[in-house]
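Quick start: what a row looks like.
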Amino acid sequence: MKDNIVLRWTLSAVLILVIVIGSYSVFAKYAEPSTSEHAGHVGEQNTSDSSDTKDKEKQEAGHGDHGESQGNVSKNSDITPTLHYENNLIHIELKDKEGNPVEELEINHEKLMHLIIVNDELQQYYHIHPEKKGNGVFTIQHKLEEGSYKAFIDIKPKDKNYEVQPLPIEVGAGDAHGEHDSLKPETEFTKTVNGYKLTMSPETFTSGEEIVLDFDLKENKPEPYLGALGHVVILDEGGDEYVHVHPASETDTKFATKFDQPGIYKIWGEFKINGKVNVYPFVVEVK
């Protein structure tokens, strides 16, 4: 009797266990697709949210890329200048990275802006000073012959970084970027301009070292010009690397500079003698 009771309880327990396992299997079979479908929907929703977020980030990045693009044009500058030339009028506009006009400039050697213009062959050279018109705009009347030029806007903004970059100017029609002769390095550095002789030294140049350009005007005495006894502008042969150098002191015509890379460079020395500014050009090879 007792054995029968134990057997019945055992069989009942086994039967209950089988029913539970079977019920769970059936439930799992039908419940799993529903769970999987829900997970897929969640995944799509998250993907959609992620996509929306990415789209938003992409739009913001697009705006940021535009800012970066401006920054890449002039990597170390907070200011982007634009230049237009029409009917002998040079029109310059200065804007910051947010597109606001730049008004705060410091006077640098008696001028708010120095504008250097050279043609592709580096044969024509102009150093002029546009006048401030307000709202970040500077203008000046200056006639350029037909051809291709590069302009260098030399300014000293207040509380902003600025790096001079070449800006192209196309005057007239036709192929302004045609072939032109390479610069030929000179070996003699004595020249006469408007009857005034000048000798530049040294005669050899090495890259990576500080070099002092010494201009000897012989018996001619230079006069103060734009706050100094002279000015020197240096460009590489391609007209891309710009250096504007001022005398090492107020009493002589020695200019300290350095050529970072070997190559061909053109140097323009500007000196005022008897009320007239004379420009002395030299082509040098830096080894």
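That is the whole record. Helices lie at 2-73. Residues 2-73 form the longest helix (72 residues).
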